[in-house]
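Could someone model molybdenum atom with this protein?
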Amino acid sequence: MADTVTTAYRTCPLCEATCGLELTVEDARVTRIRGDEADVYSHGFLCPKGPGLIDLHEDPDRVRTPLIRDGDGFRPASWDEAFTEIDRRLRPIREAGDRNALALYLGNPNAHNMDALIYGRVFAKALGTQNIFTATTVDQMPKYVSAGLMFGHQISIPVPDLDRTQYLLALGANPLASNGSLATAPDWRGRLRAIQERGGRVVVIDPRRSRTATVADEHHFIRPGADAHFLFALVQVLFDEGLVDPGPITEHLNGVEAAEQLAAGFSPEAVEETCGIAAEEVRQIARELAGAERAAVYGRIGTCTQEFGTLASWLVDVLNALTGNLDREGGAMFPYPAAGGPNVRGRSGRGKGVRLGRWQSRVRGEPERFGELPVVCLAEEIDTPGEGQVRSLFTVAGNPVVSTPNAARMRAALEGIELMVSIDIYVNETTRHADVILPAPSAFHRSHYDLGLYQLALRSVANYSPAVLGPEPEVQPEWRTLLTLSGIAAGQGPEVDTDAFDDLVIRGLIERDLRGEDTLLAGKSAEEVLSALEPRRGPERTLDYMLRTGPFGDRFGADREGLTLTKLEEEPHGIDLGPLKPRLPEVLRTPSGKIELAPEPIVADTERLRASLKRGRNGGMVLIGRRQLRSNNSWMHNVPHLVRGKERCTAHVHPSDAERLGLEDEERAQVRSARGAIEVTVEVTDAVMAGVISIPHGWGHDEPGMQLSVAGAHAGANSNVLADESLVDPLSGNAVLNGIPVELAPVESAEPVPA
Ligand SMILES: Nc1nc2c(c(=O)[nH]1)N[C@H]1C(S)=C(S)[C@@H](COP(=O)(O)OP(=O)(O)OC[C@H]3O[C@@H](n4cnc5c(=O)[nH]c(N)nc54)[C@H](O)[C@@H]3O)O[C@H]1N2
Ligand SMILES: Nc1nc2c(c(=O)[nH]1)N[C@H]1C(S)=C(S)[C@@H](COP(=O)(O)OP(=O)(O)OC[C@H]3O[C@@H](n4cnc5c(=O)[nH]c(N)nc54)[C@H](O)[C@@H]3O)O[C@H]1N2
Ligand code: SF4
Ligand SMILES: [Mo]
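Reply:
Sure, complex below.
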C-alpha cells in the first residue's frame, strides 16, 4: 500500500482540446489518469493519449540530462558543461558577425508550453536572426495570413460556435481524430452530436470519409486542393440567388462588391470538374448555409496545407460574413481570452494591420510573415553556401526531419551543419544530429496555462495547473534553459543570471503596456505593478500579470472581483468566464477599422485560382495525410499502448485504383514522388476518394542513432520523404502537404528505393 495517495489536477498539454485530467499520485508517482469530471470545460472527457502522459514521464528513453555529442553517440553532461560547450562552439560563429548564420526552429509542443510561449520569443530576439522558422508554416500560416489581412491581426481567427450553431460546414478537419484545431474545445464528438440532437446538421467536405465524416449528416468527397474553388462557388451562388445578408455587421464590411466580382467566374458548374462535387450539390449546400438559423463554416489543416491555402482560409470567413454568421452567436465568433492578447489589448476597433515581407529568405527570396520564414526554406538555407549561410541551428521541441517536406534533404543538411543544439525530450530523427541536447521537464514537473490555445477557445475559460510533482531533479525548467541560451546568444557567456534576465523580461512587458494607448494601467508605475506581482517569478509572474491586465482581470485593485492567478490557484478545475459574445468592431485592428473582405494580396492571388480551372486532370494519383487518434505528430510512438495492435502507417487506396495498379490489400507498395520514394503497406478502402492515396505523417522511426526503442519497433515510413519543399501556397509560404503528385506500384515491380 502506498503511504500517501493524493489527487492532483492538470490540463493535458498534448493537443488543442485542453482537457482537464485527474491524476492519482501515490508516493510521488502518478499512477492513474482519468478525465476530470469537474473540469469547467472538458467535464471528464479525455482521449487515449491523455493517460499516455504517465508513459512519457516514465519512459526510460526520455532524455533526463544534457547530452554532448561523442563520436556517433552522446555522453551525459552537467548543465554547466553543456552550456559552456554551446558557448564555446557558438562564439566563433557569432563573432564572424552575421546574425543570420544562426537559425531557430520552434516545433508544435511550444504552443502547449507556458515557458516556451513566454520565453521562446525572448530567445528568438536574442539570436537576432531573420532565420526564424516554426511548425506554423507546415500548418496554419495561411489562416494567419487571411485573418491578418481581413481583421488586422493574425490571431483574430473566428471559431465555430459549436454549442449554439444549427449548421456546421467543416472542411479539411477531422476533429474526431485530432480533437480539434484552431477551435479549442474538448469533446468534439459530444458537441457535434448535440448539434444533431437539437435538429441541426453537420456537413463534412474531405477527400476521405474520415471519422468525422462518418458521424456527419452529409459528407462530400472533394479533390485535394479544390476547397477554394468549392468555397468560391458557394459565394457565387449566394450572390447569384440573392442570399447575401451580412446582417448587423454590414456597416463594418469593406469589399462586398469586390467579393461578388471575384466570385463571378466560379459558378458551381465551372468548378464541378475541379472539385469533384456536383454543381447541384454545391448549390444545395449554399442554400442550406444561407437558410440556416445559425451556421458556421470551419476549415482546418486540409484547407491550409495545400496549393490554395490562403484563398481557402479567406473564403471560409467571407462565407461566414456574407451569410450573417460572422460574429454572431452560433456562427463564427472571435474568442475572448482571459489572459488577454493582441486583439484584446491596446486601442480597439482599428490598428496598424499586418505587414508581410519585411525581409526575404536568402536563397529563394521567400517573404517573412509575422516574424518567421517558411520552414520549407530551412534546409536550403543550411546547405547552400555563400554569405549569410546558416551555420548553427537551435531546435526547440521540433522534429523537422519527420515533420517538414523533403526529409532526405533536411537530414543531409543537419548532418552537415556546424553546430546544432536541441531542447528536446528524445534523441530522435532530428535531435540525433545535434551537438548538444538539453532536456525539458516532463509534464508532471511543470506548471501549465494555455496561453496560446485559449486564444482560440469557444468559451472564455481559465485554468492553471501547478506542477504535479514539483521540479524535476536534474532537469532545469525550460524557461531557465531558454533564458540561458538567450544570454549565450547575446554574448554574455554561459553563466547567465536567469533571475535578473527574467526581471528584465517582465519589466519590458509592463513598460510596453504603460506606453500603449488605452492602457489599463493608467496612473501606475512599473514599480507599483512589479511589487504587486511579488513574490512570483518566472512564467507565473508573467501569467499573473497577463491575467490581471486581461479582460476579466483585477487590474491591480481596480476591480476587486477580477481575476488573478491567486484566484485561479484556488480553482483546480478552472474558471468558466462564459460563452463568446459579439466583438465587432472592437476586435478589429485593420487601418480602416473595417473587415477587409477583399484584401489586395488575396485579390491578386485569385488569378492563379482562375487559371487552375483550365488545368486538365492528368489522371495521376495525389497524396494526402491522415491524423490518427493514437498519435501526436511524430513524437508519441514511443508510448507502448499507443502503438499496440494493427499497423497504422498504411496507405489507403481506393479499390478502383488498387485494381488498375495491380495492388492487393495488405501488400507492400512503393510510393514515389518528385522528391523520393517510400514503402508502405496498402489498405484497400473506399473511405478514400479514387485518385487519392492517404498516408499518415509522423512515422519513419528507423534511422540510426536514435533512442526510441518502442517507436523503432513500429517504424512505419516517413511520408515527408515524398513532400516537396518547392511547393508552397504563395501568399503564406506554407508547405503543400496535401495534393502531392505521386506514383504507386507493387514493391516487386517498382524501382528500388534509393538509400
Ligand atoms: N505530411 C505532413 N506533415 C506534417 C503535417 C501533416 O499533416 N502532414 N502536420 C504538420 C503539423 S500540423 C505540425 S504542427 C508539424 C509538427 O512539427 P514539429 O513540431 O516539428 O514536430 P513534432 O512531431 O510535433 O515534434 C515535436 C518535438 O518536440 C519534442 N517534445 C515533446 N514535448 C516536449 C517538451 O515538453 N519540451 C521540448 N523541448 N520538447 C518536447 C518531441 O520529442 C519532438 O522532437 O508537423 C507538420 N507536418
Ligand atoms: N491524434 C492526434 N491529434 C492531433 C494531432 C495528431 O498528430 N494526432 N496533431 C495536432 C495538430 S499539430 C494539428 S495542427 C491538428 C490538426 O487537426 P485537423 O485539422 O482536424 O487535422 P486532421 O485530422 O489531419 O484532418 C485534416 C483532414 O483534412 C483532409 N484533407 C486532406 N487534404 C484535403 C483537402 O485538400 N481538402 C479538404 N477539404 N480536406 C483535406 C484529411 O483527409 C483529413 O481528414 O491536430 C492536432 N491533434
Ligand atoms: S483530447 Fe487532447 S487534451 Fe484531451 S486528453 Fe486527448 S490529447 Fe489530451
Ligand atoms: Mo499542427
